[in-house]
Design goal:
Length: 163
């Protein structure tokens, strides 16, 4: 199973479109908020793929849940934008609020920085952002592959994507 994970696209749907156009064998596309209208645009262009998304602190007037738990390839994932956990400061609140959920992986956005950490046997991953990376970082997204209950993750830098 191949999963593309995006966050914080902030009205740069064209970047997602170029990535999706160039990737192969996609089973699921996840967006972790801040301009989920971008992923809804992609969903219309590529209806053959499955989608999961949660709103971020810049997504207004949406009635979808701000967090969700899903199972993929035998692993349990928690999806959140994470702004309410003050993740720009540190991951303490996120850890505290997710460590007893019985999940294997927490995917979160908001910080505009790619990140991968383990806390109490839970893998926490942030794909970075497609719009305005912090700390002079690169625009990035995440590719997850799950096979036989094992997951591999790869951060992919996005360079020179033009509309």
């Amino acid at each position: 199973m191949k999963i593309l994970v995006f966050s914080d696209s902030h009205n740069h749907a064209y970047r997602i479109e170029k990535i999706v156009h160039n990737e192969t064998d996609i089973d699921l596309i996840i967006h972790l908020g801040d301009c989920i209208s971008d992923i809804q645009t992609i969903q219309k262009l590529y209806p053959q793929y499955s989608y999961e998304y949660v709103p971020g602190n810049c997504d207004y007037a949406y009635t979808i849940p701000e967090e969700k738990t899903i199972e993929l390839g035998g692993l349990k994932f928690f999806l959140t934008h994470s702004a309410k956990y003050n993740t720009n400061k540190n991951l303490y609140e996120l850890y505290k609020n997710t460590e007893n959920l019985g999940v294997d992986v927490v995917l979160y956005g908001h910080t505009h920085e790619p990140s991968e950490t383990v806390h109490k046997n839970i893998l926490y991953m942030n794909p970075g952002c497609l719009s305005r990376p912090r700390n002079k970082g690169l625009k990035t997204y995440l590719v997850l592959t799950i096979e036989d209950g094992k997951m591999n993750a790869r951060f992919v830098p996005v360079e020179n994507l033009k509309p």
